[in-house]
Design a protein that fits this description.
This protein is α+β, with helices and mostly antiparallel strands. It contains 2 helices and 4 strands. The chain has one domain (2-78): TATA-Binding Protein (2-Layer Sandwich), CATH 3.30.310. A hairpin with a 2-residue loop joins strand 2 (31-36) and strand 3 (39-45).
Length: 80
């Protein structure tokens, strides 16, 4: 499941900072992996779009729940 967000480099910095505030390390690089609470995802940012692909999640978390929570969190960071 891949989520895409319009996102420039400054907005990606905000996303990285928001993840870091939650204890999730996001490299300064434009691509990598993030993980917390059983959710593992891969991210790729190209200067105009941030793509996040959810690779693994707990069995009890629905796709919709994970997608919604992650989307809300990233959109809030981008628009802050």
């Amino acid at each position: 499941m891949t989520l895409s967000f319009p996102c420039n480099r400054d907005q990606f910095t905000k996303v990285r900072e928001a993840f870091a505030a939650r204890g999730i390390l996001v490299n300064d690089d434009t691509h990598g992996m993030i993980a917390q609470d059983g959710v593992t995802a891969q991210y790729d940012e190209d200067g105009t779009t941030l793509n996040v692909t959810i690779l693994d999640k707990p069995w009890y978390a629905s796709d919709g729940m994970v997608r919604s929570h992650l989307s809300d969190f990233i959109n809030e960071a981008i628009n802050s």
